[in-house]
Amino acid sequence: MILVLGATGKVGRALVPALLDAGAPVRALTRDPARAVVDPRAEVVRGDLDHVESLPLAGVDRVFVLTSGHGGDTVAQETALAQAAARAGVSRLVKLSTTGVHFGQTDPISLAHARAEQAIREAGPAWTILRPGAFMANRRFWLQSARTDGAVYVPEGDPASALIHVRDIAAVATLVLTTPGHEGATYELTGGEALTPEQQVKILGEALGRPVRYVEEPEPAARARLLALGWPARAVDGAFELKRQSAGREHVVFDTVARLLGREPLTFADWAREAVG
Ligand SMILES: NC(=O)c1ccc[n+]([C@@H]2O[C@H](COP(=O)([O-])OP(=O)(O)OC[C@H]3O[C@@H](n4cnc5c(N)ncnc54)[C@H](OP(=O)(O)O)[C@@H]3O)[C@@H](O)[C@H]2O)c1
After folding, report:
1. Which helix (H) or strand (E) holds 200?
2. What would the mean pLDDT of 30-59 be, rounded to a whole number?
3. Residue 214: pLDDT band by 50, 70, 90 thresholds?
4. What InterPro entries has UniProt attached to this entry (predicted)?
5. I need a surface site. Which of 91, 119, 141, 228 has the fewest CB within 10 A?
6. Any idea of the CA torsion for 277, 39, 65, 229, to the nearest 10 degrees?
7. Residue 71 has what pLDDT?
8. In ligand 1, which atom is closest to the CA atom of 69?
9. Among 71, 96, 77, which Cα is nearest to 15's?
10. Domain-wise residue ranges, the chain
């Protein structure tokens, strides 16, 4: 049985069906099963990473470890989870981290992942670390203004980025969770090409079937926009600090997805077509 943390989030919603399609039994974790939208073939279980005793580890042999970027002490959560998993006889932990750790970034998000990676490595079960770069799915919030104003507002200085599709992360995670040979490996994961925000907006416009203007916003306005979308202030600060530190690196393309999956990564145009529905 594979316990999937973050099963209701961006990565988890892609990973649960991918594992089930590969024939693996899945236990999907959420704090609120009544609200959770999860593939009906999975067993949905309640649990909270802030209360390690609530985690349903009995009968679990592999865990996909994902904590939210939006709050909670993720290092404490992952340390407690890894130790509880070891006590429960779990044989393999696969942790979702970030390329920020590969690049030695010191923003709060990358630092927390670096510490959590260490806890996973030290816990006892075999481990694999997946370090994706920025997700295409982060661009979903562009859709609203693209539709209402015919424009997308992008923070000034946003870099070219080799964005990755969450289904590619899910495909790699499925491979690593269901086949041997990945123990002790750390994989950096990106899409196949770096695109500037302006190029991304153009592709989104093509998917929508109408031109969408690309508008650069000064940082204070960009911060206010994220706060208005409901982001906690701490998450906004962390995201901007991460962005500042990753700006010179987000264009770097790793060939890991193609190497592991034997096919090219999904493109931003693939993502945009699906996102506009
Ligand atoms: N976005 C990016 O560009 C990017 C790039 C690299 C790495 N990452 C990393 O990806 C991770 C986020 O993945 P995501 O975007 O797929 O997540 P997400 O969409 O933000 O969803 C968060 C998930 O965490 C669960 N969760 C939150 N608090 C919890 C708690 N106390 N106990 C149990 N579950 C809890 C939520 O489940 P319920 O609400 O159902 O309980 C939900 O499934 C972060 O570690 C982030 O640093 C993101």
Report:
1. helix 197-208
2. 95
3. very high
4. Ergot_Alk_Oxidoreductase, NAD(P)-bd_dom_sf, NmrA-like
5. 228
6. 40
7. 66
8. 44
9. 96
10. 2-135+164-192+251-266
Element housing 65 (H / E): strand 62-65
pTM value? 0.96
Is 189:14 a contact under the CB 8 Å cutoff?
no
Nearest CA to ligand 1 atom 8: 98
The whole-chain average pLDDT of the chain stands at 95
Is residue 235 within 8 A of residue 71, CB to CB? The reply is yes
Ligand 1, closest atom to CA 97? 7
Architecture of domain 2-135+164-192+251-266: 3-Layer(aba) Sandwich (3.40)
With tokens 């206010």, the residue in question is 224
What pLDDT, on a 0 to 100 scale, did the predictor assign at position 185?
98
Name the residue of 52, 67, 234 whose CB sits within 8 Å of the most ligand 1 atoms, as the mutation to test its pocket. Answer: 67
The residue ranking higher by pLDDT, 213 or 242, is 213
Range in 75-84, 131-140, 209-218, 224-233 with the lowest mean pLDDT: 224-233
pLDDT band at 165 (very low <50, low <70, confident <90, very high): very high
- What is the spatial distance between Cα 277 and Cα 269, in angstroms, rounded to a whole number? 13
- Ligand 1 proximal residues by C-beta, below 6 Å: 5-12, 29-32, 36, 48-50, 66-70, 72, 96, 98, 109, 132, 134-135, 138
Q: What is the best residue among 3, 45, 57, 68 to mutate for testing ligand 1's pocket, by most ligand atoms within 8 Å of CB?
A: 68
Are β-strands 43-46 and 151-155 bridged in parallel, bridged antiparallel, or unpaired?
unpaired
